Task: structure prediction
Amino acid sequence: MSDARSRQGGQGPWKLLIVDDEDDVHTVTRLVLSGFSFDGRGLEFLSAYDSAEAKDALAEHPDIALILLDVVMDGDDAGLRLVRHIREDLGNALVRIILRTGQPGRAPENRVILEYDINDYKEKTELTAQRLFTAVVSALRSYRDLMTIEAHRREMESTHRELIYTLGDIIERRSKETGYHVQRVSEFARLLALLSGRGEAEAELVATASAVHDIGKVAIPDQVLNKPGSLSADEYELMKTHASQGGDMLAFSGRELFVAAAAIARQHHERWDGTGYPAGLAGEAIHPYARIAALADVFDALTNDRVYRAAWTVDAAVAYIEGQSGGQFEPALVGSFIAELPSFLEIRRRLS
Result:
């Protein structure tokens, strides 16, 4: 079961974080909402008296559903900065935030609502017991619905990943590639993505999309695909079409994963110096994910047996890649690859 589903699946109370520097506000809020229940679940109250305590609470309880947040704390607009932290630094778009203020002139409602991603904004004097109850119900209903959508999104992404890896495995089996080629290329690509400054989520995207870099080979006849010797000029031209055909095959969806996979399939034989195929792209005109997949694919291809040649030694493959910095490969990626070579060799050992 996904994290999103488990968080909203009806087990345990909704977590409500009260952030206010006035102790009376915490006491009154808990008193007003005592006995509260929504969807058969009560409330678990958490308290923070400043932004630092709120950040600690969010780190310890990532499943907080609702925050009742004072705008002005410690004499400044710390509440607004905390909203920015939650939405931008933490990337948490799910938790519902109700801003409360005792000094409406310090943070005018029209400016706050336009500039900040909040769900409601109330003056403390407006929040009678009934209005607070209604605001909390509305916020929790929104949170519940968003969590349901998030659970379905994650399930769909998981299904897409399984589909991609299954396609990659089918390609690998048909072209008689060395076992685990798809997995190794994916893991090499993940590491290169991380080394190039991408976050974990984007690195996962690159890794998954790289699994079908050779999907276009399904359109290449067996006698060409698995020919034990060198290809003739005509056969080589036919083989080269797998890049454009692979890009076309994956262009059916506008979803992020398939867009990335299509770019990799189409461009992983482009070269940094512009002498690759199918479009002769050069430098940064080549999709960054394709540049990553190209290096990952070549390293694995060179160091494993193929039907048309024996495997190269690791030293020979590394020397080739280093010599192709600025030629076949992006120089920055080659530098990262060489600097972290032991990590790539560990992946190779683990998936041999």
About this structure: The radius of gyration is 27 Å. Strands lie at 14-19, 43-48, 66-70, 96-101, 120-123.
